[in-house]
Design a protein that fits this description.
Blueprint lengths: L2 H18 L3 E4 L17 E4 L6 E5 L4 E5 L4 H8 L4 E3 L10 H6 L7 H4 L6 E7 L5 E5 L4 H7 L8 E11 L3 E9 L2 H14 L4 E8 L2 E10 L14 H7 L2 E5 H5 L19 H11 L2 H12 L12 H11 L5 E8 L3 H11 L5 E7 L10 H4 L6 E10 L8 H11 L3 E2 L9 H7 L2 H11 L8 H5 L6
Parallel strand pairs: 1-2
Antiparallel strand pairs: 3-4, 4-8, 5-8, 6-7, 6-8, 9-11, 9-12, 10-11, 10-14, 13-15, 13-16, 14-15
């Protein structure tokens, strides 16, 4: 089926459903990386967009690529890397889709120079809520183009994307610089971001006195190669080694096998023998996300397991909907030392993934300018908290984090569990601009609003 045939089929279905006024949802082949919103209404009508998985063009001379929105980054890299290119930003999990990286918030170790994947995009094709097709870029329908990122599919269905490619080499050399003091780590880390001598910069904080800066460059030859797709555990290796070598593909997806470090939730999954025999069933981000969703339905929070039966049942009904914390928070660089001291005291959960992130063209328009004016900077530090248990009876850590990030003038990705009141939400997001674009692309609200789709439980 050609791309035109695919989108004509989708637009026809959207037009029919919009005319009937029935709510609908899109069905994709990929696993969702968004924490489920239990307050969302279930939409029984499904529109299949799972066929949007073709790479349409790789232009070597122009260093550009055109793909359908359902293409995964692993399939994209496998197609472009043999030609000497990779995307400017490659999210660390293999089966994140191109459309998902744009609609959500993609980050990785090239983000300190190039921002998110969407910052390398040149053109979008979207289907509107009433079944029309719109093409947009920085020069055509530019207001729509700039707002698609961070809209989580609520301004239109992305169907085709054109983006720039980055020249690549076959291998990556990594250097691991260890620190026992946050101040020493912070001075070194921010200086490396300023000098820009490395293509890849991120960090893993294993503990308050075990901070590792991870610095990398692509190379053409290597003395040896490490692999972290099976028995070996990448995040643990950063404590044991001073340098490492990988293929570029394996480096880009080095966190996928553990889904960062979620394998720690079942310790035997980090045993070599178990990984060798059963790894293909349990390891990898897709497997772990599927298993976590299955187990979340039947697991009783540790916080209520030792309570009397009646009280346990009552508490369980209230707390069972709290998933483990999976959240990225973007803290203004100048405020990060303050965040760090607070995090140590109130969270004390490690490892913590640290990714420096620059908004290349200034603050994104979907952010309320009054919120960003608190900081007057466009350089952030993404702190990624993956797997913290949130079943304590006395405190909701998700809510606690959300409030702290707001006070520091930061941004919390909405793929996590959210608690915003409508007023607080409007203080962070540029809803005036969002609503004006919504009138152009989805006047009947067929796709729902960002607030409706992403906020888990509204506050009074």
């Amino acid at each position: 089926m050609t791309h035109t045939e695919k989108i004509n089929n989708i637009t026809k279905q959207i037009t029919i459903q919009t005319a009937t006024g029935k709510p609908f949802a899109f069905v994709k082949k990929s696993v969702s990386h968004v924490v489920p919103n239990n307050n969302q209404k279930i939409k029984t009508t499904k529109i299949n967009i799972g066929e949007l998985t073709d790479i349409l063009e790789i232009n070597v001379s122009e260093k550009t690529c055109v793909v359908e929105s359902g293409v995964t980054f692993i399939n994209l890299v496998k197609a472009t890397l043999p030609l000497g290119f990779i995307p400017y930003v490659v999210p660390e999990l293999k089966n994140i889709t191109i459309g998902g990286a744009i609609s959500g918030c993609s980050v990785e170790s090239m983000s300190y120079k190039y921002g998110g994947f969407h910052d390398s995009c040149l053109e979008y094709e979207i289907i509107t809520g009433d079944g029309k097709i719109i093409n947009c870029s920085k020069t055509k329908n530019s207001d729509i183009f700039e707002m698609i990122h961070g809209s989580y599919g609520t301004l239109g269905l992305l169907t085709k994307i054109k983006f720039k490619l980055y020249p690549a080499k076959p291998f990556v050399k990594l250097s691991y610089i260890n620190f026992s003091s946050f101040d020493e780590f912070w001075n070194f880390f921010t200086n490396q971001c300023h000098t820009g001598n490395y293509e890849f910069i991120d960090a893993i904080i294993h503990a308050p006195d075990k901070l590792v800066a991870c610095l990398g460059n692509m190379i053409t030859q290597t003395p040896y190669l490490s692999s972290y797709e099976k028995e070996n555990v990448f995040y643990k290796s950063t404590l044991k080694k001073q340098e490492d070598y990988m293929t570029t593909e394996q480096y880009l997806f080095r966190y996928d096998t553990e889904c960062h470090w979620l394998s720690r939730a079942i310790p035997i999954l980090e045993w070599r023998a178990v990984r060798k025999v059963f790894g293909r069933f349990f390891l990898g981000s897709d497997n772990m996300i599927r298993w976590s969703k299955r187990l979340n339905k039947i697991s009783l929070p540790l916080a209520v397991q030792n309570l009397p039966p009646v009280l346990a049942a009552k508490k369980f009904l209230h707390y069972k909907k709290r998933p483990d914390m999976i959240v990225d928070v973007f803290i203004p660089k100048t405020k990060f030392p303050t965040f760090w001291q607070w995090y140590k005291e109130y969270f004390d959960f490690f490892p913590l993934w640290i990714v420096p992130y620059k908004m290349p063209n200034g603050i994104y328009p979907w952010i309320n300018y009054k919120h960003t004016a608190k900081n007057d900077e466009n350089f952030f530090i993404d702190a990624a908290i993956y797997g913290k248990k949130n079943t304590a009876l006395e405190i909701d850590y998700s809510d606690l984090m959300e409030n702290k990030v707001f006070k520091l003038g930061g941004i919390k990705t909405l793929i996590s569990r959210n608690h915003y009141s409508p007023t607080r939400f409007a203080e962070i997001y540029n809803l005036k601009l969002y609503n004006s674009i919504k009138q152009k692309t989805d006047p009947t609200n067929s796709f729902g609003t960002v607030f409706e789709r992403m906020v888990t439980k509204q506050k009074n």
